[in-house]
Amino acid sequence: MGKFYESIPPELVPWMLKQEMFWVATAPLSPEAHVNVSPKGVRDSFHYISPTRVWYQDLSGSGVETISHLRENGRITLMFSAFEGPPRIVRLFGTGTVHEFGTREYEELIPPEERRPGSRAAIVIDVHKVGSSCGYAVPYYEFRGHRQALLDFFVSRERADQKDEAAHADKGLKAYWDENNARSIDGIPGLQVAAKAPGVPTCTDIMKRAGASADGSIPATATANGSAVSVKTGQSVGRRRVEELAVAFALGVAVAAVYVRLVGSV
Predict the structure, then answer these.
(1) % helix, strand, coil for the chain, step of 5
(2) Is there a single domain that holds both residue 178 and residue 195?
(3) How many domains does the chain contain in total?
(4) Which of 186, 189, 260, 266 could bridge to 33 as Cys pair (CB 3.0-4.6 Å)?
(5) Tens digit of each residue's pLDDT (9 = 90 or more) over 19-68
(6) What is each CA distance from 171 to 150, 151, 164, 193, 199, in whole angstroms?
(7) pLDDT at 165
């Protein structure tokens, strides 16, 4: 049965922070324009401030729909779903504010040691309604790990900017913002400050702590903030399971051999 609250119930906070992904939905005012839904899946992107305020670190992508829609009308909904344990869906309805890279608010929320590669904004949501529903139709899924491709891609972009501080590097992150994040697909203005901000985006300290290689790639066993991942990437998990099955098979053969000897000696 669905329930609604005026603020985030305390008992839901640990569950939301535990989720490995969530969804963000926004829409422009024009009925002819496009509604947007974006999945967010980098660990520790979502942050809780109070029962009526949350925020998340927004990473760069090929589009800028969420930021553009928020600049136009501010409406936003975040949705969390349970893929293990008891079924549950939680929606946070609110008004979003964009704090771009290069602004004081961004730097206060995201210090350099916590910034992810490609991070372009902090999205702060003032929550005015919370909806909790059953989620009975949501299937079970096993979490196997976060993809590193996005982080790896933007590490190389940021390094290009670091080599060309005087102007936008052709392959740098600021050039990427200019090309892909200036307007939404409906022409609504997107990033306005980040590409022109003084200084260059950098995650050097994060990459060093994560054990990044010379080309900026991140080991599968490390996160962008340098902490060990308790659940490895899908490839590593698959390899580990094969090894576990091989060990189990060998033990089974050994036990069967002992059993045959015991039965033969009776």
Answers:
(1) 35, 25, 40
(2) yes
(3) 2
(4) 186
(5) 999 999 999 999 999 999 999 999 999 999 999 999 999 999 999 999 99
(6) 15, 15, 10, 19, 16
(7) 61
